Amino acid sequence: MTFILRLPAILALLALVLASLGPAFLATVVLAPLPVDLSPVLSEDQIAVVRASTWLEAGLWYGAGVLFLVAAIRLMRRTQGFWVWLLGFACYGGRWAAPQQNGPVETIQGLDLNAYLKPEALLATPTSPEAQLGLLGIVLIVGLLILIIDAADRAYWDRQEG
């Protein structure tokens, strides 16, 4: 039973690792003037978005990526991965909350809930608060899956003791 849930959770965590380390690397390339030309890969608008990031955001991206990788490895080894995922989620959520000018509470209060009825509009504006909170929701769903898997693993190991 847990294999059916474990494999998608591991794959989702590995996708989160790539989704976290990729922007962190791009922010590092832009913030520290490395001799890498990003113009063939990114448009000018995307490079401007990356330039708006800070070292704090890049560090939180790196932290989330590494912690999600550790959580994936712990799931592969059938050890408890939820707490490591929780630390990665804290970094991921902190990366979202750090650049909010009005503060995270005001941003959440100003959300347009009708935007979630039009997924194509969310995909068109990935920097909007609605799209970013949608991504946080997806990461939260992955964490709930990990919690279920950890509970099943704990029950299995408890039965093996007796």
How does this structure look, described?
This protein has helices spanning 2-31, 44-51, 55-76, 82-97, 104-109, 119-124, 129-161. The protein has 162 residues and is mainly alpha-helical. Helix 3 runs antiparallel to helix 4 and helix 4 runs antiparallel to helix 7. It is 75% helix and 0% strand. It has one domain. The radius of gyration is 18 Å and the shape is globular.
Write out key terms for the chains shown:
mainly alpha, globular, 162 residues
The stretches of 5 or more residues where confidence is low (pLDDT under 50) are: none
- Listing every helix as H and every strand as E from the N terminus to the C terminus, the arrangement reads HHHHHHH
Q: Please count the helical segments.
A: 7
Tally of strands: 0
Task: Please describe the topology of this protein.
Blueprint (H helix, E strand, L loop, with lengths): L1 H30 L12 H8 L3 H22 L5 H16 L6 H6 L9 H6 L4 H33 L1
Helix pairs in contact: 1-3, 1-7, 3-4, 4-7
Short structural summary:
With 162 residues, the chain is an all-alpha fold.
